[in-house]
What does this fold into?
Amino acid sequence: MRELTDFNLVADISKPGVRYEKRPAKLPDGSIVPGLFNAWITLDNPAQLNSYTTEMVKGLIMAFRAASHARDVNCVVFTGVGDRAFCTGGNTKEYAEYYAGHPLEYRQYMRLFNDMVTAILGCDKPVICRVNGLRIGGGQEIGMAADFSVAQDLARFGQAGPKHGSAPIGGATDFLPVMVGAERAMAACVLCEPFSAHKAYQMGLITDVVPALKVDGKFIANPLVETQRMVDEYGRNAYGEPKTGEAAKEGKALMARGTVDLSLLDAKVEELCAKMLLTLPDCTTKSLEELRKPKLDAWNRNKENSRAWLALNMMTEARAGFTAFNEGTKEDREVDFVLLRQKLAAGESWVGPLHDSIQPKAKRKG
It folds into this structure.
């Protein structure tokens, strides 16, 4: 048999915090196809809600390249460990303790980040984001770089930039207007209000949503959001807004009684992989390339300017915001937005006591 060339840049693609594995590909009836696989790329940093460190970013770049090159891979499943979070973005501890105040270092980090997003957008195989929990901030951005997203309906989505020291220009401002329209993108990126998986489905942000909460042995739709009458066996809905008052109390009681089970999520992901197995591979790749163009065009236009701005921002608002998130209490992790605006309006310089004066109250008192 002909000896095949290895197109990977390095022999060992493993990095701490990123798992790469091949799982047998299956036909729609569940039978295993010999010699064919789906590549699972999994963020493995559950203690920090699967936020990605610099080393994990390197690992994702290499993992997506490996999956793209693999002749025996049908689809790529991109997910996170556990049921709490797919990914909450960049590791704020690393941002606060290493990159804050060091724009040249962060600029190099953002080169890696850009290469990670490009590796997802340029993968020769269909990429399915298996949303097993929170998809927030940079996690939302790398999730939107995927071709399909399937979510468990306890998951929440959203951006965090202007609340925590950044702008969502690692993909959100490029992808969201294309995917959900300009005004919904504006609300998501500027207001930073998280929304449910049901709302994400209604917006057109994800391909499918399935229940994950089991109460008394039966799956039920997320009890903390308003849902329209079930329209199929998975409990899709057209609203997904948070419940209030007594309905919210009842929902929380149901949540306390239930257990999280991701078996329906896994079944839906396998179903999607099986459907793509029954397509011509080169025609599928070409379809992906064409359909990715609106996202890719916006991304390529903006990524280098965004990289430069994000680096410089590490001297001012990013430094303040990431420090507050990293060192504040669970209940108080944001800078004093009003005080900051007042000080800037009075002409106060960032070079001086401004940074410390706007930190969370508990930190200032300490």
